[in-house]
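User: Hand in any protein.

Assistant:
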Amino acid sequence: MLKRRIIPCLDIKDGRTVKGINFLNLKDAGDPVELAKIYVAQGADELVFLDITATIENRRAFAGLVERIAAEINIPFTVGGGINTVEDVSILIKAGADKVTINSSAVRRPELISEIAGQFGSQCVVVAIDTKLVDDEWIVFVNGGRTSTDFHAINWAGKAEELGAGEILLTSMNNDGTKSGFSMEITGEVSSLVNIPVIASGGAGTMEHFRDVFFNTACSAALAASIFHYGEMDIRDLKKYLTREGISVRL
């Protein structure tokens, strides 16, 4: 089996890293470039940077910050927020991003997935799915988790793969920021359905949570934010723990 990946996620607002609970009550968590450098030193496999208000404010993601990040780190990183066209992607790739993640724009216009994959390759396209359990159905939400859709997460993940997505970033909004563990239910269903990597997101609070999601689902990576941002967990220690538990990671 391929080695499982550990991915810190940095939500960016006004040039600063922020973190909330269930997508609300955002608090400052530090300078994104400085945090990125710390995570590289600790052995993060990749990083994700999300401009969380770009879609709401109807603007492009932060190419200037991407250039700063690319100049300081040497591991792959993904950028998302406010990406609506192939031109938007081109700007970010030229600035140094390895991949882009799209969410609201893909739901509004699914062919955008195919357009980006056609221009830059499927490996460049990460489709982010923010989903919440509503009346026993995992519903897709857009606009930073503010707006529900008629899309069901499992069906949408399969469609995204068909359209050319190279990876799925799957966030359980019910678990986000709660530190109560990843959602085994939706992560297991999506990662079993698709043949592309799935990144589990939402709810990491302990090393056991990472172990459990890797043992119990077919996800390829696990993403977390606040436990890394506030120094509650060192990626080096997490990877040593996972290795002891029999999970293959890159040390």
